[in-house]
Design goal:
This protein has 142 residues and is an alpha+beta fold. It has two domains: 70 residues, no CATH class; 41 residues, no CATH class. Helix content is 29%, strand content 10%. The protein has four helices and four strands; from the N terminus they run H-H-E-H-E-H-E-E. The longest helix has 13 residues. The radius of gyration is 23 Å and the shape is elongated. It starts with 44 loop residues before the first helix and ends in a 6-residue tail after the last strand. The relative contact order is 0.09.
């Protein structure tokens, strides 16, 4: 079997991370409430979305100033698509989802417990999880 060797390639990337102050006060949210998972009441979610929209201009201004090689954002900042297209910069999008959702989807596909119940409103246990988690066929993730 042939062996291959190559010299170690050392690549040094210059990655800059810029933080922006979330405009909590401008959208009527307490300091520290900057995302939907931090809200303590359902009516606060609108403030989070308004705040997300308000940081578009400062981020776009920084993009013009720094000419970055790419923009990395998640699905909660959809306007980054427009910024990236306007300035011809690649955009990397990530869609964070929790591990529980992935586990439930996996075990539903593996064991198909939803196919063993008689109706959409009948509960079933999701096998393979460390705790007894019940759901109904109508609640299944698509």
């Amino acid at each position: 079997m042939p062996s291959f060797s190559s010299p170690t390639l050392m690549i040094h990337h210059r990655i800059l991370i810029h933080k922006f102050k979330f405009p909590s006060d401008a959208v009527g949210l307490p300091e520290g409430i900057e995302n939907v998972s931090a809200i303590t009441a359902p009516e606060m979610s609108m403030g989070v979305w308004k705040g997300n929209a308000m940081i578009q201009k400062p981020i776009e201004d920084l993009t013009v100033e720094l000419h970055p090689h790419c923009i990395v954002s998640d699905v909660c900042l959809p306007w980054t698509v427009d910024v990236a297209e306007r300035w011809k910069i690649p955009r990397l999008m990530f869609h964070p989802a929790n591990v529980m959702l992935h586990c439930v989807e996996h075990y539903l596909k593996l064991y198909t417990p939803h196919e063993k119940v008689g109706s959409d409103s009948e509960s079933f246990l999701i096998p393979g999880l460390p705790d007894n988690i019940e759901m109904k066929r109508s609640q299944r993730p698509e």
